[in-house]
Amino acid sequence: MECYHLAQKAVPDLLEHLKKIAPVYAPHQKGEKSYSFERVTHASEVVLDYNRTMLSLKKFFLPPTERLLQYSIQKQNVVEEEIKPEKRIFFGVHSYDMQAVLRLDHNMIEGHPEPNYILRRQDAIFIGISFEPDDYHFSRSVGIRVEEMEGFDLFLNKVDTNYYLFILNKEGSDLLKGFQKLKAVKDIVRFERNFKNKLKYHYNRIPEVFQHVYHSEVWQKVAERCVGCGTCNLMCPTCYCFDVMDDVALDVKSGERRRQWDGCMLTPFAEVAGGENFRDKYEQRTRHRVYRKFKYITDQEGVPWCVGCGRCTAFCPAGISLTDIVNNLIQDYENQQYAKTGVVA
Ligand code: SF4
Ligand code: SF4
């Protein structure tokens, strides 16, 4: 792996260089404390010292809403939306968001491949960047280091005020052709970043905990504060549920089919014909959401389907913390084990 020194003042030049290759998307400040991946027009508007964007890169590959097709009875036709692959460079991506894209790839490509996702995703180039963990990040607890480089083509690791720039594959190397402002690094200084927010157990042990806490009181306690807004689902980079609906024109002769994000914390999600709802209580919905992140898919794939970005906690209007939920479940599990065996788990 080649590594170069990139001075902070050369980052705008690198962005300008990349813009000549393909459209570049990078974090921009949107409010006092919120950030969003947007297309770069002026390098000066890019913010690389950010904690997290409100929405992850998922919005580019699986948009919040999209038209799938239009139909007309008069014309006797159905016209599907045409999606063209587009080379795009995503600059300044944190490791947990890259890992979320890799998990989405699994969901969208394995089994029944989802063509719209694949077409939007296939030519994407990813340039990662390190981050300083805040009070909400806990990606280290789910096995994702700040400097995890899997999935990236280039990676910038901030050291003091400048960067190490790692070239991770041929695509990354090609991106830098003609860019002169790099100096080779001989001795790479390695250091670990500290996470304040942590899960109490190694993630390998968490599915075992979830075998014993389905009826835990923790779910009811969380439900007493939850307002069922669905923010935690809609901001989660690994949630991928959607709803498909037909909008029929008033003359009932034409219409369009749309897809939009849905979430298991929203009341209608598990509603079926006749008005029955399989998860009409907040506690059932919270339990389902958290089991999806730490048990159901994890049992099949061996890794948590939560990447520890902290969005669901940082943006929850009720101040509900996912790490508190899991750590309280671990405590409940330990109490159960102690009551059974007299031994601390
Ligand atoms: S964001 Fe918070 S309040 Fe809203 S559904 Fe999720 S846990 Fe409940
Ligand atoms: S469950 Fe929460 S912390 Fe985990 S990936 Fe989703 S939004 Fe991030």
CATH level-two architecture of the largest domain? 3-Layer(aba) Sandwich
Please report the distance between the alpha carbons of the first and last residues.
Answer: 42 Å
Strand portion: 15-25%
**Mean pLDDT metric:** 95
- The strand line-up of the biggest sheet is 3-2-6-7-8-9-1-10
- The helix fraction, in percent, is 25-40%
Segments where pLDDT lies below 50 for 5+ residues? none
Structure class: alpha+beta
Under CATH, the topology of the largest domain can be stated as Aspartate Aminotransferase, domain 2
Bound molecules: iron/sulfur cluster
Task: Give the number of helices.
Answer: 11
Total strands: the figure is 12
Q: Give Rg in angstroms.
A: 22 Å
Q: Outline, from the CA principal axes?
A: flat
SSE topology string: EHEEHEEEHHEEEHEHHHEEHHH
Sheet with the most strands, sense and barrel status: 8 strands, mixed
CATH class of the largest domain: Alpha Beta
- Count structural domains: 2
Write a brief caption for the model:
By secondary structure, the protein is an alpha+beta fold.
